[in-house]
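hey m, so remember when u said the tokens were messed up on ur end? i reran from scratch. heres the input so u can diff it against urs
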Amino acid sequence: MSMTESGSSPDDTTASIVPGHHGDGLPQTVRILPAERAIEWIHAWAELDWPITWETAYATRDKLGWTPNPEDPELFTTELTVNQDRGYLIRLDGRCSEVSIPLCSRNLSAEPNTPWTTSLCQTYDAIANALTALYGPGEQTGNRTNVLQTDWILSNQVTVTLITSGKIMRAILKSPEVTAIDQWDAYFVEKYGEDYVDD
């Protein structure tokens, strides 16, 4: 199955999937980012010298061509998400601690075993395989019928998360500080159970 629009160049950087129809609640085209481009986006953030300043975060956002929300620069859109489903930056102790990147247009009406979900699964697998080639095996949780997630903890202690629900797909990158918090929480959950309270 071709990942580009009919008549578009093979070098186009945005895949167009599942043309919409008037009245079906979908945008005219819902799109999935090609795996190669997704890796470029993820790699651009993963290889920064974390923890990063807001100046570095904004400069990286702008370099990738994303558009900040004029009222809140911690929110942004990409060419996949115009007027919907913004990406976002999160702060911790005055620095950028996390970035969440949409890798497809949001398609809330997606049904299992359709061209959309097939393409989304194939792209998820391609991105996961490429990240494994770069960073080694990740830890996978969940399943394709609900939420599927794979996490990689890199040598710089940045966490890269790839997640899909069949309707959306995102990459989330967390700073070493947030990675340490998540590992600490996971340790206590494993030791004391899901209902433990951290006082």
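this time it looks ok to me. The beta strands are 17-19, 29-30, 67-69, 72-77, 87-92, 95-102, 139-142, 148-153, 159-164, 169-174. if urs says something different then somethings off w ur setup not the seq
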